[in-house]
Amino acid sequence: MKVDRNEFFRQATLRICSSLDIEKALFNFLQYIRPFMPASKVSLVVFDPSAGALISLIVVDQVGNKKFFPPIQMTTQATLEIESKIKDGDIRLVDRGEHSELVKSLCPYVDLSDNTAIIMDLAVEGEFLGALSVLAEGEAKLTKTHLDLISLLREPFAIAMSNALRYEEVVKLKDILDDENRELNRELRRRFSGREIIGAEYGLEKTMEMVRQVAPLDSPVILLGETGVGKEVIANALHATSLRNNGPLITVNCGAIPENLLDSELFGHEKGAFTGAIAQRRGHFERAAGGTIFLDEIGELPPQAQVRLLRVLQHKKIERVGGTKTIEVDVRIIAATHRDLEEMVKQGDFREDLWFRINVFPIVIPPLRDRKEDIPALVHHFIEKKSKELKIYPTPSVPIEEFERLKAYHWPGNVRELENLVERELIHNRGKGSGGLLRFEHLEFMKEVEGSEVKHANGVELFTLDRIESMHIRQALQTCRGRISGPNGAARLLGINPNTLRNRMIKLGIPFKYS
Question: Which of 118, 160, 421, 470 is the most exposed place for a label (fewest CB within 10 A)?
């Protein structure tokens, strides 16, 4: 059919420039040209002169499916062919018998085994950007008439590709800037709120002494301890007092990254390395260059990731996913886990050679139940911190008997559980008009008091005396509506002195405002 060339140019250009998202623009363009030619796919490839490689920007078909391919290394002859043709702005109709070096380089992107294609070089100001390919599959063939129409669009496509590449570069720079801003914010938080570690002179005294010993060195450190003991706080202290404290501290939760994304997250990826990799991205190891990388929950790494991590630790080199270039990384490794890695090694779940690599200087962080002398200081710290976050003024105080109750608790969740408890009680305490006193009414001790578990003797379930006494006192308090002393108090009902009852309640962790 006869085509109005001016209208074709105008409408096609509108589609090409319809979006900075090159995928949407190509799909819109393909939908427009299909009534004029048997086009089934459109692709854009970018030429990287520094690597001498073609990189798939996008391949779109008629139903909107998209594909990305890894970079294809070009031969010297193909590169020379490109340089000789860009001056004339080459466009060619390629049939099954085409065997030029450039077309051979494009074969991974454009299947010419039983198809025809129009391939048009794209350049801006004499600089070769890449190529546009329009593909017709099967019996349908592209002709010189179709080539003539596509040739009208060289300049719009060159400009669109240039804009898309610049847009992706801006996105990449924005990602880098966001990473650096997040790292700066973390560094500021560490420097202004992390200078003092609560318990450094008491329960964590030995831990901090080990931190002071190893911090100035580049030796790997592994932090061992239960969940919630504050391993990240100790990692921050190690970095802040090291010779690398002007560099970044990158924290990686190894258990939170999907296995199929581990390589990309840790080591980065090249543009086009996989579906969705529209721009080059640095991994955590590259971002940590000159500083420290904190591998939290390293015991959660799958076996294949352990192998790749071992290679990085041995050679201090990485390769991005989809890349061929080896990148040296200068990082200090701090790992952490709550799991028994030695037992995992015996069970075959953790590599022995990796364990030897990271277990150079182990630091064991004691659980909160083994350093209960730090609880008052921690509570004051969290009250002050959370009151600022929740905009509570004035800051409430804690009666001394509350600290005794807190010390009686086993704290399976450690410092993190204590922090959460303080925040919860502050929220509940808001607007109660309680005279600025904070009482931990929502702490459930009944199942957590040490030694209160059920014992079995000859098939008969028996409770410990503490458990029975706790249940008895709670029942009396419930009967007396929480009143302890006086003629209608629980002490009178139980036949004991009110002060004796209070002491027993503190020991057993029974709240004073019982209901």
Answer: 421
**How many beta carbons lie within 10 A of that of residue 246, not counting itself?**
9
Nearest alpha carbon to residue 152 among 118, 117, 110: 118
Looking at domain 5-166, its CATH architecture is 2-Layer Sandwich (3.30)
Distance, CA of 33 to CA of 149 (rounded, Å): 10
* Structure confidence at residue 513 (pLDDT): 57
Nearest partner of 422 among 198, 192, 240, 238, judged by Cα: 198
pTM: 0.54
Residue 490 near residue 515, CB atoms below 8 Å: no
Of the listed ranges 105-114, 115-124, 265-274, 290-299, the one predicted with least confidence? 105-114
CATH architecture of 374-508: Orthogonal Bundle (1.10)
83 pLDDT exceeds 60? no
In angstroms, the first-to-last Cα distance of the chain is 88
Q: Write down the residue that tokens 């854009």 correspond to.
A: 44
pLDDT in tens, 177-217: 666 665 655 555 454 444 467 877 788 889 999 999 999 99
Please report, for the chain, the start and end positions of each structural domain, with discontinuous segments joined by +.
Answer: 5-166, 206-364, 374-508
Other CB atoms within a 10 A radius of the CB of residue 62 amount to: 14
> How would you label 263-275 residue by residue, b for 16+ Cβ within 10 Å and e otherwise?
bbbbbbbbbbbbe
**∠ CA 489-493-494, rounded to 5°:** 115
Closest CA relative to residue 133, chosen from 216, 29, 233: 29
Q: Evaluate the CA torsion angle 457, 460, 465, 467 in order and state its sign.
A: positive
- Beta strand pairing call for 115-124 and 91-94: antiparallel
Backbone angles phi, psi at 66, to 5 degrees: -130, 155
Exposed/middle/buried for residue 448 (C-beta within 10 Å: 0-12, 13-18, 19+) = middle
Say if CB 183 and CB 250 are below 8 A apart.
Answer: yes
Q: Which CATH number is correct for 206-364, 3.40.50.300, 3.50.50.60, 2.60.120.200, 3.40.50.720?
A: 3.40.50.300
460: helix, strand or coil: strand
Phi and psi (nearest 5°) for 100? -70, 160
Looking at residue 9, its pLDDT comes to 92
278-302 burial by CB neighbour count: b if 16+ within 10 A, else e? bbbbbbbbbbbbebbbbbbbbbbbe
- Residue 454's CB: how many other CB atoms inside 10 A? 9
* Under 8 Å between Cβ of 34 and 174: no
Q: Evaluate if residue 136 carries a pLDDT over 70.
A: yes
